[in-house]
Design brief:
By secondary structure, the protein is of the alpha+beta class. The chain folds into two domains: about 40 residues; about 120 residues, Nucleic acid-binding proteins (OB fold (Dihydrolipoamide Acetyltransferase, E2P), Beta Barrel). The longest helix has about 40 residues.
Length: about 170
């Protein structure tokens, strides 16, 4: 049988160790709450103050990247930018449904946006002249290019994209 002194020392060890375990459990709970909160916000349309910095330097840099991709006929590039709606096209309902519209960048380049509305909400109330921020994958074509993957990838194998319009993010 253990001596009383050994029992006291052993009980102090478990209390101290138990206190550390409680701290670790609390920390783990906080991390889980933050992760769930972030995931919830990322999966729903949300209010945003804008996706690109409002300064013209950031927009010019994005336009330059897209211009270089077009000039060099490059595809499969994750891009972020901003443009004005020049034309709203009919939805593509073959296979996965896509909301389609043409954006004109400040550089003059045009982009077709193909936004998968089976995986992300449609931009409601979109009109010619509206500003749209985007983050998606650029594919070259002769007319200026296409931006798609403007939604979350349910399989988690592709970068998540989004569109932003009038303070709401669609992904």
């Amino acid at each position: 049988m253990a001596s009383p002194r050994a029992i006291v020392m052993l009980s102090k060890f478990y209390v101290m160790k138990g206190g550390m375990v409680v701290k670790a459990i609390i920390l783990a709970v906080i991390v889980v709450i933050i992760a769930v909160s972030y995931s919830w916000r990322a999966n729903s349309p949300e209010r945003t103050t804008g996706s690109l910095p409002s300064n013209t330097v950031a927009i010019a840099e994005a336009d330059q990247i897209l211009g270089e991709a077009y000039k060099n006929k490059r595809s499969d590039i994750q891009v972020q930018g901003q443009g004005r709606v020049e034309k709203i096209l009919a939805d593509d309902n073959k296979g996965s449904r896509h909301q389609k519209f043409i954006l004109r960048l400040s550089s003059g380049q045009t982009l077709l946006v193909a936004h998968n509305i089976d995986l992300a909400p449609r931009i409601a109330g979109l009109q010619v002249g509206d500003s749209v921020d985007f983050y998606g994958e650029y594919e070259w074509n002769q007319r200026g290019g296409v931006v798609h993957w403007t939604h979350r990838d349910p399989a988690g194998r592709h970068a998540h994209g989004w569109l932003a319009h009038q303070g709401r993010r669609y992904q």
